[in-house]
Amino acid sequence: MRIAILEDDPEQSALIVSYLKDAGHDCYAFASGRALTHEASRESYDLFLLDWQVPDLSGEDVLRWIRAHVTAPVPVMFVTNRDTETDIVSALSQGADDYMKKPVGRAELLARVGALLRRAYPQKSAETLTLAPYHFDLRSQALTVAEKTVELTQKEFDLALFLFQNLGRLLSRGHILEAVWGRAIDVPSRTMDTHVSRIRTKLNLRPENGFKLTPVYNYGYRLEQLKPAE
Predict the structure, then answer these.
(1) Which pLDDT belongs to residue 228?
(2) At what angle do helices 154-165 and 189-202 cross, to 10 degrees?
(3) 2-120 classified as CATH 3.30.420.40
(4) What is the pLDDT of residues 51-101, one digit of tens each?
(5) pTM (predicted TM-score)
(6) Staple partner for 213: which of 28, 132, 172, 205, CB 3.0–4.6 Å?
(7) Strands 128-131, 148-149: parallel, antiparallel or unpaired by DSSP?
(8) How far apart are CA 42 and CA 171, in angstroms?
(9) What secondary structure does DSSP assign to the chain, as a single string?
(10) Taking the domain 124-225, which CATH number applies?
């Protein structure tokens, strides 16, 4: 998963990043609130971990920004020294999903992060995903549409699955490239656009079929399921 971390203490930031990377997550660390909000306006993340007292914008300010500007309900957890009942109630009432006191323990951090991600993205841990007429079998890496098999390359299957797993979310180009092609591979941007075009055609992702795959200028893509009237 793609995790943004707000932490101005270099040692704490490095520790949290090391724990999460060892667990297979992709981490992006920010030392100031404005740096995180600037990047979050251009990139999408699966989870935000926020310290409270950081330069220029507090963690509480960043939480309010996330809830006002990030369209999907991305989970947010505070990781901070502040632990009074007033602080915890304030954070939770403004939209935080969890609250963890420093110093950070590896086992507790991974358990809390795992629980948040499972609740926010339950379909990502399933063996099948069905959004009629589309059915993904993750074990056999097969996709059927109205019970007819669609021939896809591995990357096309991975891309289609990722889009359906994140139905309704606005996904940045970097997020898609990282999830489907991996961070270590330098993939031209047009490669992703070509695959998106093929997916749209092969799966017939058109409004008349109940789904719409649209580009968002200078950001990325969003797959939406339309209501019958639409």
Answers:
(1) 63
(2) 80
(3) no
(4) 999 989 999 999 999 999 987 789 999 999 888 888 888 889 889 999 999
(5) 0.82
(6) 205
(7) unpaired
(8) 10
(9) -EEEEE---HHHHHHHHHHHHHTT-EEEEESSHHHHHHHHTTS--SEEEE-SS-SSS-HHHHHHHHHHH--S---EEEEES---HHHHHHHHHTT--EEEESSPPHHHHHHHHHHHHHHH-GGGGSSEEEETTEEEETTTTEEEETTEE----HHHHHHHHHHHHTTT-EEEHHHHHHHHH-TTS---HHHHHHHHHHHHHHTT--GGGTEEEEEETTTEEEEEEPPTT-
(10) 1.10.10.10
List the domain boundaries for the chain: 2-120, 124-225
Q: Assess whether pLDDT exceeds 60 at residue 191.
A: yes
Q: Which amino acid is at 131?
A: L
User: Residue 96 and residue 33: Cα distance in Å, rounded?
Assistant: 16
Q: Distance (Å, rounded) from C-alpha 6 to C-alpha 80?
A: 10
Q: Which pair of tokens denotes residue 18?
A: 């090391």
In this structure, which amino acid lies at residue 180? Answer: V
Enter the tokens of residue 51. 């310290």
Task: With a cut of 80, say whether residue 170 has pLDDT above it.
Answer: yes
Asked if residue 210 has pLDDT above 80, the reply is yes
